[in-house]
Amino acid sequence: MGLLEGKKALIFGVANEKSIAWAIAEAFKKEGAEVALAYANEAIAKRVIPLAESIGATITLPCDVRSDDDIKAVFAEIGKKWGGLDILVHSVAFANKDELKGSFLSTTREGFTMAMDISAYSLIALAKEAMPLLTASNGNVLALTYYGAQKVFPNYNVMGVAKAALEASVRYLAEAVGQDGVRVNAISAGPLRTLAAAGVGGFNQIAGHVSAKAPLRRNITQEDVAGAAVYLSSELAKAVTGEIHFVDSGYNIIG
Ligand code: KAL
């Protein structure tokens, strides 16, 4: 028996086969869950739909998380097809490339608003629409974050502020939905070479520092994150909520 046998999981944020969300989808499937994928736009659909088919995920839905109408449509469809939901995964973030270099002082109002909307507010918007489906099964919500929410890293800039808002939102949401039996947690993953990391400066230096200084003296893999995602979404973690759980080779404990 898998740890997620019979559970239904909706995952936002698969962009390609290197996505953390994709490793989570594969691990969930392996543990017996049924998986649906929501994708951001048509360009991404071309990659996501074949991936979905490869794990027998029959539900793939378009969703721009900036649109309340898109979000409503996704959960209406999940309600119609599944009648409930056990697991919601939020693995979505975006900031304009211009904001991810140079001085944080240059952050623009537009760039700040965009990063906050897509990377932090969207968790609240998704959770709100998912709640009627999640309550029936004591479901759970899982978000992805990065240590740049808590400490300053070069180039992470406005995304660090957005992740700080996301982490605080995890705690406030956990309090808001706990009385309905729903849990909310985040995984703070170490540096991973995903599409989001591509073309942004400073990644190699940060990854090099982790492999030199982290207690485990290595970088993590997408599968390392997926393992923690399975645990947090399973009955094993039924008393765990409002947590930011580091999967980072222990890097965050080093001073
Ligand atoms: C300090 C680190 C080095 C990298 C710095 C910034 C990373 C920001 C993450 C953010 C999500 C990246 C973007 O939004 C890129 C975007 O401007 C252009 N890319 C895209 O549009 C692609 C096609 C799509 C798929 O990407 C998105 N986001 O939709 C942080 C490193 C060490 C850890 C990382 C990468 C953390 C993280 O938050 O991803």
Q: Topology of this protein?
A:
Layout: E1 8-12, H1 20-30, E2 34-39, H2 42-54, E3 59-62, H3 68-82, E4 87-90, H4 109-135, E5 140-145, H5 157-178, E6 183-189, H6 203-213, H7 222-233, E7 244-247
Parallel strand pairs: 1-2, 1-4, 2-3, 4-5, 5-6, 6-7
Question: What can be said about this structure in brief?
Answer:
The chain is an alpha/beta fold and 255 residues long. 44% of the residues lie in helices and 14% in strands.
Describe the 3D structure.
With 255 residues, the chain is α/β, with parallel strands linked by helices. The protein is 44% helix and 14% strand. The chain has seven helices and seven strands, in the order βαβαβαβαβαβααβ. β5 (140-145), α5 (157-178) and β6 form a beta-alpha-beta unit. The protein is globular. The protein starts with 7 loop residues before the first strand and ends in an 8-residue tail after the last strand.
Quick tags:
single chain; 255 residues; alpha/beta; Rossmann fold; seven-stranded parallel sheet; 7 helices; globular; binds Kalimantacin
What fraction, in percent, of the residue positions are helical? 40-55%
Broad CATH class: Alpha Beta
The tally of strands reads 7
Any idea how many domains? 1
Mean pLDDT: 97
Written as H for each helix and E for each strand, in order along the chain, the element string is EHEHEHEHEHEHHE
CATH fold call: Rossmann fold
Uncertain regions spanning at least 5 consecutive residues: none
Q: Please, what is the CATH homologous superfamily?
A: NAD(P)-binding Rossmann-like Domain
Strand order of the largest sheet: 3-2-1-4-5-6-7
Shape: globular
Beta percentage is 5-15%
Largest sheet: 7 strands, parallel
Number of helices: 7
| C-alpha end-to-end distance | 41 Å
